[in-house]
Protein backbone atom coordinates (compact mmCIF):
# COMPACT_ATOMS: atom_id res chain seq x y z
CA UNK A 1 0.00 0.00 0.00
CA UNK A 2 1.09 3.54 -0.74
CA UNK A 3 -0.15 6.31 1.52
CA UNK A 4 2.28 9.05 0.46
CA UNK A 5 -0.30 10.80 -1.67
CA UNK A 6 -2.46 11.33 1.41
CA UNK A 7 0.20 13.60 2.87
CA UNK A 8 -0.55 16.14 0.14
CA UNK A 9 -3.00 18.94 0.78
CA UNK A 10 -4.54 18.68 -2.70
CA UNK A 11 -5.71 15.14 -1.94
CA UNK A 12 -7.59 16.19 1.17
CA UNK A 13 -8.98 19.25 -0.59
CA UNK A 14 -10.53 16.89 -3.13
CA UNK A 15 -12.10 14.82 -0.36
CA UNK A 16 -13.33 17.97 1.41
CA UNK A 17 -14.96 19.15 -1.81
CA UNK A 18 -16.49 15.69 -2.07
CA UNK A 19 -17.85 15.97 1.48
CA UNK A 20 -19.33 19.36 0.66
CA UNK A 21 -20.99 17.84 -2.40
CA UNK A 22 -22.41 15.03 -0.28
CA UNK A 23 -23.78 17.45 2.33
CA UNK A 24 -25.26 19.73 -0.34
CA UNK A 25 -27.06 16.86 -2.06
CA UNK A 26 -28.29 15.47 1.25
CA UNK A 27 -29.64 18.85 2.33
CA UNK A 28 -31.35 19.38 -1.00
CA UNK A 29 -33.01 15.98 -1.14
CA UNK A 30 -34.20 16.28 2.46
CA UNK A 31 -35.91 19.60 1.67
CA UNK A 32 -37.48 18.73 -1.67
CA UNK A 33 -38.06 15.09 -0.80
CA UNK A 34 -39.50 16.17 2.53
CA UNK A 35 -42.11 18.38 0.90
CA UNK A 36 -43.01 15.59 -1.51
CA UNK A 37 -43.13 13.07 1.34
CA UNK A 38 -45.51 15.15 3.46
CA UNK A 39 -47.78 15.74 0.46
CA UNK A 40 -47.70 12.04 -0.38
CA UNK A 41 -48.51 11.06 3.20
CA UNK A 42 -51.52 13.38 3.28
CA UNK A 43 -52.72 11.87 0.01
CA UNK A 44 -52.30 8.34 1.38
CA UNK A 45 -54.49 9.07 4.41
CA UNK A 46 -57.03 11.24 2.58
CA UNK A 47 -60.62 10.20 1.99
CA UNK A 48 -60.23 10.55 -1.79
CA UNK A 49 -59.74 7.23 -3.55
CA UNK A 50 -58.15 8.98 -6.52
CA UNK A 51 -55.52 10.70 -4.36
CA UNK A 52 -54.83 7.46 -2.51
CA UNK A 53 -54.42 5.60 -5.80
CA UNK A 54 -51.99 8.18 -7.19
CA UNK A 55 -49.88 8.28 -4.01
CA UNK A 56 -49.93 4.48 -3.60
CA UNK A 57 -48.82 3.96 -7.21
CA UNK A 58 -46.00 6.46 -6.76
CA UNK A 59 -44.67 4.91 -3.54
CA UNK A 60 -45.06 1.40 -5.00
CA UNK A 61 -42.88 2.27 -8.00
CA UNK A 62 -40.30 4.18 -5.95
CA UNK A 63 -39.92 1.49 -3.28
CA UNK A 64 -40.05 -1.31 -5.81
CA UNK A 65 -37.15 -0.11 -7.99
CA UNK A 66 -33.47 0.50 -7.08
CA UNK A 67 -32.28 4.07 -6.65
CA UNK A 68 -29.52 3.51 -9.21
CA UNK A 69 -32.09 2.55 -11.85
CA UNK A 70 -34.09 5.67 -11.03
CA UNK A 71 -30.98 7.83 -11.55
CA UNK A 72 -30.27 6.13 -14.86
CA UNK A 73 -33.88 6.51 -16.03
CA UNK A 74 -33.80 10.26 -15.37
CA UNK A 75 -30.26 11.18 -16.49
CA UNK A 76 -29.60 8.62 -19.21
CA UNK A 77 -33.29 8.24 -20.10
CA UNK A 78 -35.55 11.28 -19.83
CA UNK A 79 -32.74 13.85 -20.15
CA UNK A 80 -31.47 12.17 -23.35
CA UNK A 81 -34.81 11.93 -25.15
CA UNK A 82 -34.71 13.84 -28.44
CA UNK A 83 -38.00 15.65 -27.86
CA UNK A 84 -36.92 16.71 -24.35
CA UNK A 85 -33.64 18.11 -25.66
CA UNK A 86 -35.52 19.89 -28.45
CA UNK A 87 -37.48 21.80 -25.82
CA UNK A 88 -34.47 22.73 -23.65
CA UNK A 89 -34.36 26.32 -24.93
CA UNK A 90 -38.13 26.85 -25.21
CA UNK A 91 -39.38 25.52 -21.86
CA UNK A 92 -37.42 26.17 -18.69
CA UNK A 93 -38.75 23.01 -17.06
CA UNK A 94 -37.14 20.90 -19.78
CA UNK A 95 -34.01 23.06 -19.74
CA UNK A 96 -33.37 21.88 -16.19
CA UNK A 97 -32.55 18.44 -17.57
CA UNK A 98 -29.37 19.92 -19.06
CA UNK A 99 -27.94 19.85 -15.54
CA UNK A 100 -26.56 16.59 -14.17
CA UNK A 101 -27.03 18.04 -10.68
CA UNK A 102 -30.74 18.56 -11.32
CA UNK A 103 -31.16 15.02 -12.68
CA UNK A 104 -29.43 13.47 -9.67
CA UNK A 105 -31.31 15.65 -7.19
CA UNK A 106 -34.63 14.84 -8.87
CA UNK A 107 -33.95 11.11 -8.53
CA UNK A 108 -32.85 11.46 -4.89
CA UNK A 109 -35.81 13.68 -3.97
CA UNK A 110 -38.37 11.37 -5.60
CA UNK A 111 -36.84 8.36 -3.86
CA UNK A 112 -36.76 10.04 -0.45
CA UNK A 113 -40.27 11.41 -0.92
CA UNK A 114 -41.64 7.96 -1.71
CA UNK A 115 -40.21 6.35 1.41
CA UNK A 116 -41.03 9.31 3.66
CA UNK A 117 -44.64 9.31 2.48
CA UNK A 118 -45.12 5.74 3.68
CA UNK A 119 -43.31 6.41 6.97
CA UNK A 120 -45.44 9.46 7.77
CA UNK A 121 -48.67 7.86 6.58
CA UNK A 122 -48.06 4.95 8.97
CA UNK A 123 -47.37 7.33 11.83
CA UNK A 124 -50.52 9.32 11.06
CA UNK A 125 -52.63 6.16 11.08
CA UNK A 126 -51.14 5.21 14.46
CA UNK A 127 -52.08 8.52 16.07
CA UNK A 128 -53.87 7.94 19.36
CA UNK A 129 -57.62 8.23 19.00
CA UNK A 130 -57.75 10.43 22.08
CA UNK A 131 -55.59 13.08 20.41
CA UNK A 132 -57.90 13.21 17.40
CA UNK A 133 -61.07 13.32 19.50
CA UNK A 134 -59.60 16.09 21.66
CA UNK A 135 -58.85 18.15 18.55
CA UNK A 136 -62.39 17.72 17.26
CA UNK A 137 -63.78 18.53 20.71
CA UNK A 138 -61.96 21.87 20.58
CA UNK A 139 -63.84 22.71 17.41
CA UNK A 140 -61.09 21.96 14.90
CA UNK A 141 -61.96 20.75 11.41
CA UNK A 142 -60.32 17.73 9.80
CA UNK A 143 -57.48 19.61 8.10
CA UNK A 144 -56.95 21.99 11.01
CA UNK A 145 -56.59 19.00 13.33
CA UNK A 146 -54.25 17.38 10.83
CA UNK A 147 -52.07 20.49 10.61
CA UNK A 148 -51.99 21.39 14.29
CA UNK A 149 -52.27 18.07 16.13
CA UNK A 150 -52.04 14.89 14.06
CA UNK A 151 -49.17 15.71 11.69
CA UNK A 152 -46.82 17.21 14.34
CA UNK A 153 -47.49 14.20 16.61
CA UNK A 154 -46.87 11.79 13.72
CA UNK A 155 -43.61 13.52 12.82
CA UNK A 156 -42.30 13.02 16.35
CA UNK A 157 -43.19 9.32 16.36
CA UNK A 158 -41.71 8.90 12.88
CA UNK A 159 -38.27 10.12 13.99
CA UNK A 160 -36.68 6.64 14.50
CA UNK A 161 -37.62 5.25 11.06
CA UNK A 162 -36.95 8.66 9.49
CA UNK A 163 -33.42 8.68 10.90
CA UNK A 164 -32.76 5.31 9.25
CA UNK A 165 -34.11 6.66 5.96
CA UNK A 166 -31.83 9.71 6.15
CA UNK A 167 -28.81 7.46 6.78
CA UNK A 168 -29.69 5.36 3.75
CA UNK A 169 -30.09 8.45 1.60
CA UNK A 170 -26.75 9.82 2.78
CA UNK A 171 -25.13 6.56 1.70
CA UNK A 172 -27.24 6.63 -1.46
CA UNK A 173 -25.66 9.92 -2.53
CA UNK A 174 -22.60 7.84 -3.41
CA UNK A 175 -24.55 6.75 -6.51
CA UNK A 176 -24.21 10.31 -7.80
CA UNK A 177 -20.70 9.25 -8.80
CA UNK A 178 -22.31 7.46 -11.75
CA UNK A 179 -23.41 10.83 -13.16
CA UNK A 180 -20.74 12.95 -14.89
CA UNK A 181 -19.63 16.30 -13.45
CA UNK A 182 -20.83 15.52 -9.92
CA UNK A 183 -18.31 15.48 -7.09
CA UNK A 184 -19.05 13.82 -3.78
CA UNK A 185 -17.07 11.50 -1.52
CA UNK A 186 -17.22 8.40 -3.73
CA UNK A 187 -16.49 10.44 -6.86
CA UNK A 188 -13.45 11.92 -5.10
CA UNK A 189 -12.21 8.40 -4.29
CA UNK A 190 -12.77 7.35 -7.92
CA UNK A 191 -10.71 10.34 -9.07
CA UNK A 192 -7.83 9.39 -6.75
CA UNK A 193 -8.04 5.81 -7.96
CA UNK A 194 -8.03 6.77 -11.66
CA UNK A 195 -5.13 9.20 -11.21
CA UNK A 196 -2.89 7.11 -8.95
CA UNK A 197 -4.27 3.54 -9.17
CA UNK A 198 -4.69 3.37 -5.41
CA UNK A 199 -8.02 1.57 -5.23
CA UNK A 200 -7.83 0.21 -1.69
CA UNK A 201 -6.40 3.37 -0.16
CA UNK A 202 -8.76 5.77 -1.94
CA UNK A 203 -11.94 3.91 -1.07
CA UNK A 204 -10.78 3.06 2.46
CA UNK A 205 -10.47 6.78 3.18
CA UNK A 206 -13.92 7.32 1.63
CA UNK A 207 -15.35 4.59 3.86
CA UNK A 208 -13.80 6.27 6.90
CA UNK A 209 -15.39 9.60 5.99
CA UNK A 210 -18.81 7.97 5.56
CA UNK A 211 -18.41 6.31 8.97
CA UNK A 212 -17.59 9.61 10.67
CA UNK A 213 -20.56 11.34 9.05
CA UNK A 214 -22.88 8.44 9.88
CA UNK A 215 -21.96 8.35 13.57
CA UNK A 216 -22.26 12.15 13.83
CA UNK A 217 -25.74 12.05 12.29
CA UNK A 218 -26.74 9.14 14.52
CA UNK A 219 -25.75 11.15 17.57
CA UNK A 220 -27.81 14.13 16.41
CA UNK A 221 -30.86 11.97 15.75
CA UNK A 222 -30.53 10.30 19.16
CA UNK A 223 -30.59 13.73 20.78
CA UNK A 224 -33.64 14.70 18.72
CA UNK A 225 -35.44 11.47 19.61
CA UNK A 226 -34.66 11.96 23.29
CA UNK A 227 -36.08 15.48 23.18
CA UNK A 228 -39.17 14.94 21.01
CA UNK A 229 -40.24 11.38 21.74
CA UNK A 230 -39.49 10.99 25.45
CA UNK A 231 -43.18 11.52 26.27
CA UNK A 232 -43.99 8.22 24.52
CA UNK A 233 -42.17 6.30 27.25
CA UNK A 234 -44.64 7.42 29.93
TrEMBL record:
Highest rank taxon of the organism: Bacteria
Pfam family, one: BPD_transp_1
UniProt domain ABC transmembrane type-1: residue ranges: 19-221
InterPro entries: AA_ABC_transptr_permease_3TM (IPR010065), ArtM/GltK/GlnP/TcyL/YhdX-like (IPR043429), MetI-like (IPR000515), MetI-like_sf (IPR035906)
Stored CDD domains: TM_PBP2
UniProt-listed Gene3D superfamilies: MetI-like
Primary location group: membrane
Keyword Transmembrane helix: yes
Membrane-traversing stretches: 20-45, 57-79, 91-110, 202-224
GO cellular component terms, semicolon-separated: ATP-binding cassette (ABC) transporter complex
SUPFAM superfamilies, A to Z: MetI-like (SSF161098)
GO biological process, alphabetically ordered: amino acid transport
Keywords from the UniProt entry: Cell inner membrane, Cell membrane, Membrane, Transmembrane, Transmembrane helix, Transport
Membrane topology: Multi-pass membrane protein
Molecular function, one GO term: transmembrane transporter activity
Localisation per UniProt entry: Cell inner membrane; Cell membrane
Similarity field: Belongs to the binding-protein-dependent transport system permease family. HisMQ subfamily.
PANTHER family assigned to the protein according to its UniProt record, in alphabetical order: ARGININE ABC TRANSPORTER PERMEASE PROTEIN ARTM, MEMBRANE COMPONENT OF AMINO ACID ABC TRANSPORTER
The protein's name: ABC transporter permease subunit
Lineage of the organism: Bacteria, Pseudomonadati, Pseudomonadota, Betaproteobacteria, Burkholderiales
